[in-house]
Amino acid sequence: MTQKLKLHWSPKSPYVRKVMICAHELGVLDRLELVRSVAAMLKPNPGLMRDNPLSKIPTLVRPDGLVLFDSVVICEYLNELAGGSLFPAQGDAKWQAQRWHAFGDGLLDALILWRNERERAQPLQPLMDAFELKVTDSLALLEREAEALAAAPFSIGTLTVGCALGYMDYRFDAYGWRQRAPKLADWHATLCERPSLRATEPVDG
Ligand SMILES: N[C@@H](CCC(=O)N[C@@H](CS)C(=O)NCC(=O)O)C(=O)O
Fold this sequence. Notes:
Layout: E1 5-9, H1 14-26, E2 32-36, H2 46-49, E3 59-61, E4 67-68, H3 71-82, H4 91-119, H5 125-144, H6 146-151, H7 156-171, H8 177-180, H9 182-191, H10 195-198
Helix pairs in contact: 1-3, 1-7, 4-5, 4-7
Bound molecules: glutathione (GSH).
C-alpha cells in the first residue's frame, strides 16, 4: 500500500481549499491523510510547528519526511504527482493561469488581513479603508476579466480566483461582492457547479 501524504487541513481555510480542489480534480484524494490543524495568526500551534515553523496551513508532509509548503507549492506538487494539467506549461495559458493564481492569492491575503483587523477591539480605520479600497479595485479588475475567465480552461488560476470569491461569500457576506461584479458572479456560479468546488465549500467546525 502506498503511504499517505499528511495534509495539515481545515475546512475553513481558502488556501487549504485550493489544495483540496486540486486533489479532487486530479483524483488523488485517497493519497491524502487529512489532519485537522488549527492555524491562527495570534496563536502559533506547536503541533503544526513541528512540521512547519511558520504555523500555517496548508502544510503537506511526504512519507519520506519532506515537508512542502505553501499552497502554491503543494498544488503544483499534486499536479505533477498525478500528471495533471492544472498548471499549463507554456505560452499565454501558462502566464494567464499564473497571473490569476498570484492575484487570487493576493486578494485572499488582503481579505484575511482585513478580517483580522475587523475583529480587533479597535480596528485602525486607515487600515480598514486601505483593505476595502484594494479589495474593491481587485473585484473591478476581475469583473473586467470575467469573459476571459469564462473562456479560459479550468486551471490553478481560475480555481484560485474561485476560492477568493468563495471566501468573500464565507466571511464578507455584508460586503455584497455579487452586486458589485455581476458578470463575475455569473462566472463564479458556473464554476461552483464543479464537484470539486461543491465538495470543498468552507464550513465552520
Ligand atoms: N501563502 C500561504 C498562506 C497560508 C495561510 O496564511 N493560511 C492561514 C489559514 S487560512 C494560516 O495558516 N494562518 C495562520 C497564521 O498566519 O499564523 C499559502 O498559500 O498557503
